Batch of 3 targets.
Target 1
Amino acid sequence: MNKIRILDCTLRDGGYINHWNFGRDTIQEIISNLTVSGIEIIECGFLRDVPYQEDVAVFSCVSQITPFIASKKEKALYVAMIALGDINPEKILPYDGTSIGGIRLTFHKHEWAEAKSTAAILKEKGYQVFVQPVGTTSYSDEELLGLIKEVNGLQPYAFYLVDTLGILYRHDLLRLFYLIDHNLDPQIKIGFHSHNNLQLSFANAQELLRLHSKRELILDASVYGMGRGVGNLATELLAEYINVNIEPRYHITPLLTIADQYLSSIFSEQRWGYALPYFLSAVEQCHPNYAAHLLKKETLTIESIFKILSLLPADKKDIYHPEMVDKLYLDLQNCEIDDETSIEYLKKSISGKTVLLLAPGITLDTHKGEIQTFVEREDPLIISTNFISREFESDILFVSNRKRLNAMQKEIALQPYIMATSNLLEELPSSVKFMNYSSYLGEGQAADNAGAMLIRILNKAGVVKIALAGFDGFDVDSTNNYYINSFKSVIERKTAEQKNEDITRQLRLALNGIPYQLVTPTRYGLQ
């Protein structure tokens, strides 16, 4: 069974999680432990034409990799990846046996002519070249056969089936594998790189291991499944499966050492693994960042997200275009109306009053006493923002968020005064006071933050003074984020920090020129 090889891509594909900033010693230890474990092919990181930093697994010259593999194992192949265009292949030093022996070249469908030329240069320099078309599943049979024919002429070390979107079920996998296997030169190895969007990476790897093929097979994996978003096939799982079901070959303890000593701390800061955005992207066969971007807005139902993803043009699905998905999002939300009557009604309601805005932060519970004291002293008009408070009776319920509206359906009919943005026209009765959605959007990220939109509405209605309670901001500990349990969800540190920064900017701009006070503490940068 020597025809099976594991390629570990922890330092390269896993590096998307921490921007490849593992630290010099950790890079060294990961490579060392992978070597001791018996992994046949070890990917050390990216080759890019950028300034070199020794703590980062991104290299501008193959000689920079040499110190990390000084004690390399004779039977192991050490490789790095080039994403086409990231570095001129002429800058790559010829292979001399002291550094990596292989280079993985990844490219998009329309880049093949340049990729073919680059691969030929790298091969001429003495490297084992891996040809890896991004999103192999997006190729028609005719396109794939045409590519294979040219790859045969190139004679690389390996040709890859790349399931970029993680959408391959068993029958799809086998059909593509046999198509490639039947037409690819027998001397060229077949590699399989999968993403775990549908939790099928391990199952698909096992399926390929069961095949009776003369072809040499390379299976990509990363320790602890480390990888962007949903992650990858876990190296330790694959190695143990081969040990138990095929032949004893790998030492598992060094792999577990990598996970325990070097990756678990990264995982605690920025998680990877199964998540809805990656399931949605697999179902709609689009780049996972589209679904992740929409889910992070926390304003849409799953049905609405599916609708937006289904509207993505076919030729834009594979590569992420944030501006395009934002336009589709705003198109879905936007419904132009004349809201002057609603504004006049609001003017009368708030005339001469301080307005207390309630957001669903946990401080509504932890600082309940301060809020009650404020209400008794100021007798404000109270507006709840996208939730119904258990403790404080609101004079007005403001709704701008489809997802939150769904959560309030059973209680919303009991609210005496509902004010909503016009993106919810079809979901609410005509008795609701609707405000024109697009008129109160901010600019940039978090443009549709409910609190900031409500403040802009109040400003137009001539508010005298605003008080804020429950505008807590985001904490990585989800239990500290919301007053209502059903709103709580896991959030990564960087996401929390970015949300706080974006919403702070929106709130500051909306509050500019309006007297306001904070009744409860906040992580937003408000004074």
Target 2
Amino acid sequence: MVCVKVSYQIIMKKFQAQPVAQLHPYIDRLWGWESEADEFIALPELLPGTGAELYFHYGSPFQFHNSGSGKLEKLAPSHLLCMRQQKLALVAAADIGFIAVRFKIGMLPRFTDIPMRELADQAVTAEDIWGQAASGLCSQLSSADTLQEKLKLIDAFLLGQLRLAAPDALIEQAMPLLYRRYADISIQGLADHFHIGRRQFERRFLAVSGQTANTVKCMSRFQHAVRNLMLSDASNAAVTALDHGYYDQSHFIHDFKKLTGSSPEPYLKLARTKTHFYNASLSL
């Protein structure tokens, strides 16, 4: 039975659930939002990182401003986002209703053979990745009456796509280790841990993840720092920077500007007036 944790912020309903046991090694959580009638939601700007998130919309799909054309564009009702170098500024909207699948780092290749480099910074539809299986799921979700039914359908779909063998088992183990220990482990130390030469390790890492090992290390540090600052309004940027492995505040500000186009203080001041997709640890 699916266990769902539901919370409310103002009026909007938020929910998150653990996947079925067979998916625990690969899926962090299923989560989503559902707005009430006439509720207008200030959606966040999605920053570059290491994550992969699959969205199924049963309300209005996200819209965003295309930074290249300047036009307002709408995402598909089901889509995968793997933001790596680009930001995605979502537009405030009403009629929000979606379920998202948050993949654990390095685990998306268990569900598709499309190279990660081809999925980076693209809003790829579920149908483009999984074909008729995804089309069938979307049809079933549209006719499902309850959240529990929708979650069970998504679990079943993911189980159907799961590959029992990893494309590269060593790199699959290395990626979460680097994600967790970004502050105290070097790339050479990680290669030594797996008894492999650094050049071979970096080549295999890039082939699987679509990012260099050093990029994942740096992005993991940035993600953890920003998550901490967004989940706690009282967090101090200077202290947070040091706590997450930055040399000093200037190092953090430089990194922050490079990835967001803004220094931390004004960016966070505005971001905290909106919603965000940083979820607290899941304890059910």
Target 3
Amino acid sequence: MSPLMRLALPVLAAASAAYAASCSISATTTIQSGGDASALASCTTFSGSIAIATGAAGPLALNGIKRIAGTLSANNNSALTTLSSDSLESIDQFELTDVTALSEINFPKLSTVKTLKWISVSVLANLVSAITSADGIDIENTKLQSLSGINLETVGDIKIVNNIFITEIEMQVTNITGVLIFEGNNADLTIKLADLKAANNMTFQSCSSIEVPALASLNDSLVLLKNTFDSFIAPNLTKIGNSLVINDNNKLTNISFPLLTGVSRALQIANNTELGKIDGLPKLAKIGADLDFHGNFSEVSLPSLTDVTGTFNIQSTGDIQNTCDTKFKPMSNQGGTSRIQGKYTCIGSVANPGGEGTTPTPTGSGAKKTGAASSLNVQAGALSFAGLAAAFFL
């Protein structure tokens, strides 16, 4: 080896060690400015966490980095306006909280995140990304009008809440293994999940349209609360692993679950003021806990029902008494056939139909066509939608 090489090798080794150290840091690296971001451009993979300082202002570019094996975060920042990268493909955790001036995120190559959590990024209107893989997505209080940069195939949790400008969500997702919540977004929000075949727990509030044509398997619960659509159809859903709740959807006139055979826990359809008949469950045979229907319907049909493990409560302003007496009472203990195992109540022409445990009042003069709140609906006014679902399904 030449004398020159002997001198050069230690220098090269030191440079390599310095490069490795700068791209793999156990402590959090804080970015104050564009210059700090540019200093990381030589790192193809950055192992560690990057925090954007609360005082960082204007546009910020993280060019050069392809992967962040850690967290990229910004919290309580009121001056950052755009966040971009022409190279970033993967982030473990992407967290933005109270970043109130950020209007654009431009990561055209970003395809993979483990968790994405954006809370109160209140002026964010433009998103450019290519995210197809995530364990969890939580986007709350933004100005996004769509999720066009997020097109997941498989995901754990999806939570889209209080994004009042978002009017359309269309995803190619086929499997949701965790919790899906859409709540408090634009009243005209349409949701298209055309390829979704399997899900765990799904809750929808304040949506104008929901399409789940391929959904066949639901391991946990489905909750539809205070939506504005007139019809909900799940043409291929065969069984619900926990509860089915359809409450306070004031324009709903049709529900259809043509292949649904079982609900493992509770079934509640309540206070859907325009729902004149409940006849969209032709194959439903077993309910593993309580059945509770109350509202203004004049027709109710459950032709395949054979077993209700809990209480059975049907109350309506409509004249359904003949159906109660001929179709359901023979299934109750009182009627001698022990297929309804809990307390049996079925009565029509009541002034204020209510949930299990309420006392039906016969219709009198001046009675209004309305439904009294059940215990579940009382909770709806006091809890968030997620809290309501959690309280009911425990």
